[in-house]
Automatic annotation (TrEMBL), chains A, B:
Keywords associated with the record: DNA-binding, Transcription, Transcription regulation
Record carries keyword Translocase: no
Ranges annotated as spanning the membrane: none
Pfam short name (any one): TetR_C_33
InterPro entries: Homeodomain-like_sf, HTH_TetR, MT1864/Rv1816-like_C, Tet_transcr_reg_TetR-rel_C_sf
Gene3D superfamilies hit by this protein: Homeodomain-like, Tetracycline Repressor, domain 2
Name of this protein: TetR family transcriptional regulator
Domain HTH tetR-type: residue ranges: 5-65
Coiled-coil ranges per UniProt: none
DNA-binding region range list: 28-47
Superkingdom per UniProt: Bacteria
Length: 193, 193
DNA sequence: TAGATTTCCTAGACCCTCTAGGCAAACCTA
DNA sequence: TAGGTTTGCCTAGAGGGTCTAGGAAATCTA
């Protein structure tokens, strides 16, 4: 009986393919084993289980996602950087919904702490906001606004929640424009009368 | 053998409780049957299956969610209405994460079309934007912005994605303020040079 | 080449969805 | 109130999922 040549890396790559075509919720140890022509139990010598596999997938996809965004924003700043960031973001989410969903998986703190991709994503977002010169806590609030809007849009688009006639990419571009306007005119802290 | 008194309504109510305490991903026909002290197969006389149960749950929770938002915005408009909408939105998402997640489930078109709660949620959002007097397609873009930001924030908060020291509710309030500013100064359609 | 290690296997426990078919309780109706 | 009908819950079982324990073969290493 020849060996199938399984490794954690190959298993994660197979998981990426599976998630890309079938969706994150269809990811299973069984399905991967079938793909390798191997019994389910064989995979457990390489990964600890489904939770471990999902964590590895999340770390892998976050790194890929952060890379694409990093390339897009390289050498740009201000409105240009924001547009490039947003373009790369939606492009990834639309063309690889399963991978994008993986980047948003909830992870155990120790896994998250050891994921360069997740750290890079946060870092890219903070750098993006530098030209807007927001003092804390406004900077953090603005980061959270951007993350929320981008992720929310991607999530809603992925579940088919936008039904109006308006083309979705046009809305996206307009929203990015609006966010730029907002960041350049960030409202002052409200005072209590 | 006395009957357990199952009905679709009671099953959906049990599903609401389960989802509230265990999370949407733990919802299963088996767990509900255990709760009723009944065999799995018994539930299939009342619901078609798990997909049907999830759809009913989504419709139920969307109606509840829309009600709360409707009560919150009643008699208000402009900034007040936006703040009330946002407050009710986050309150529901934070205090009932499982129910909120259910309102965001992807549904077959015919189910969605027959869900008053989902329709009311969209309607509330459009009404909210009336005072800002945005012509189409700006109105649709603004609706999509609000939905994206609110849902994205709720989703990220639910997965524990906000790690900065800044208190999450403070960010939420600030973001709502910022959105009000943005809606009152919606940028003009960019012209191509 | 012998021993140690790794890889994949079989077997099986346990949980899940869902269907088919049966029996008895609850409800009608005469 | 006795008959039949409908309904509610049952048993049995197929099929798919995760995961563990322990065994045998392929591969590495001394």
């Amino acid at each position: 009986m020849p060996r199938a040549g399984l490794t954690p890396q190959r298993i994660v790559e197979a998981a990426v393919d599976l998630v890309d075509t079938a969706g994150l919720d269809r990811l299973s140890v069984s399905a991967l084993a079938r793909g390798f022509g191997v019994k389910d139990a064989s995979l457990y010598s390489h990964i600890r289980g489904l939770a471990d596999l999902r964590a590895r997938l999340a770390v892998h996809c976050a790194a890929e996602f952060a890379d694409r965004i990093g390339s897009a924003v390289a050498g740009r700043s201000g409105r240009d950087a924001l547009a490039a960031f947003a373009g790369a973001y939606r492009d990834y989410a639309v063309s690889h919904p399963g991978r994008y969903a993986a980047t948003q998986l909830e992870l155990p703190p120790e896994v998250l702490a050891g994921s360069p991709g997740h750290a890079a994503l946060v870092e890219h977002t903070y750098l993006l906001l530098r030209p807007y010169a927001l003092a804390e806590p406004d900077g953090t609030d603005a980061v959270r606004l951007l993350r929320s809007t981008f992720h929310g849009f991607a999530a809603l688009e992925a579940t088919g929640a936008f039904h109006a006639a308006r083309e979705v990419p046009a809305s996206w571009n307009r929203i990015v424009e609006a966010l730029h306007t907002l960041l350049t005119n960030w409202p002052p802290t409200p005072t209590h009368p």
